[in-house]
Amino acid sequence: MSRELIVTRQELVDLHRRAPRNAVLSVYLDQAEPGKAALRRGQSALNAGLRELERAHPDDRALAAAAEGARRIYRKLPPEDRRRHLVLFLSLESDWLWWRSLQLPPGDRMVWMDRPYLRPLVALLDSAPPVGVVVVASGIVRLLTWSQGVVDEATPRKFVLADEDWRRYAGPAPAHPGMAQQTSTNVEKYEDRVEVHLRRFLAEVGGEVAEAGERERWRRVVLLGAPALTEALAASLPDPWRSRVLPGPALNLARAPAGAVAGAVTGVVAGWVRARDREAVRELLDTVAVGGTAATGAQACLDLLRENRVSHLYLDDQLRLSGYRRPDGALIIADGPVPPGAAVERHLVERMIEMALDQGAAVTLVGGEAAERLRAAGGVGARLRY
To answer: Per the confidence metrics, is the pTM higher than 0.70?
Structure first.
């Protein structure tokens, strides 16, 4: 996998734990334009976003210096990285800089706060996990891993019928066009033989797909190709992989570049994630309703995080919470005045995400229908360890 285009959970944990003492400028840039237009669009979007942020903090000299540093760094990045989506974290603290170009858009956003703004990257980790891709054609099978919009290809597996088999079934070549033999029956027999060999080959590949899935920790496997071939391969997969198949478009991508394969898979994965999140939120709310090991509500889940009881945190992706931190360390959601001795906390959702990362809990930021249902329960839900 191309590490320069992939973000890992450990990197996010390290970014949180090694946050600088000074504030951090977080820059997220989507890149929608190809070629040279991408460079102009990126620079324009960066300048516009930084100007808007500086207007929101008119007297903050540290932000002004960080913004100028971000402009300078962006201009020095390799053109190929500026043509992609980009994330950049910058602090005035010496040598504190992190950036990454991405294949999937994180959403344009500029944030100035005490730590890196990790929410879009946490969402990316959960919504674009490693997925297996099997491209099936009559002559070749390709095994790939898709993650965060990037495709990593293993050595293609090829299916080839031996030359002697063709010679055996094709018959001798005619000496003259006018003396051509009827070979349609032989061709049909040859095609039948190919079909038998191909199905036997797909059965062998099914075992290899399962082994690769366990090794690469695929969440699902997408099958691309003609339905007759993908259905045969799906039937050959052992459990539980047979139930993890995501049907892909009926495209012949046997010799397509990795980027074309990635484009065909991205929409399939996005549809699966939406369905997964709807079902997960429904099950979470059902568990809460019967008194199971789950909870909803922002303050309740915040308290449970402090007790290290959360195994999976669910958040409305548009949620914003503020409040304060008491002297004993407890975080309180509130809109009113801060009590004496307490410290203002303007980014409590980010604090919740950081606590989950520290504790090894999964984090899912949900949108669409799943977010609407979760919003009705306070915008936060949690599966509990006990």
So the answer is: yes
